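A further point concerns the way the authors explain their paired sequence and structure data. Nothing conveys this as quickly as seeing an actual entry. An entry of this sort, consisting of the sequence and the corresponding backbone structure tokens, reads as follows:
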Amino acid sequence: MRVIAGKYKGRILKTVPDNTVRPATDKVKGAIFNIMQSRIDWSESIVLDLFAGSGSVGIEALSRGAKKVIFVENNRPALQFLKLNLESIGANGDSQVVQGDVFQFLKSAYRKYDVVFADPPYALESLPELPNRIFDSAVVSDNGFLIIEHPTRFEFHPDSRWEIATQKSYGRTSVSFFQYQKTEL
């Protein structure tokens, strides 16, 4: 696993050796950032990386110039690798690591983020409600994006508050890009 573009391009990132964490592949990560390239000014963005694992997606955002990335992870071994990865690229000043449950974090979150990444375990029982829970917490800025990596066979049910702006599939992995529902005047 490596950083694919930006100021940390080519840096090797380490992850948990067992399969308890499923890092985003370079192909999926590259696709996410290619889609976002014309939609977000990374130098002005504050990013939230939920279910961060070893931090590869959030670190990619930092590499591309994100102002700050907040990483939320509950798995202790993954947290150790996340902290090591941030230390190895020297990004500790541009990031904050929160050890804890994503849903508890969302209940107490007070800041809005330009981009919210979520790469939950594919077996997460609350996956169907994940977009609603994130939008209910008001962490996505008005013009921001929620990006969820999920199994291709899974579909989110529409909601009046948000819409899927785009969705791409890569084998068994899909990535859905959510925004607040645009209202017609």
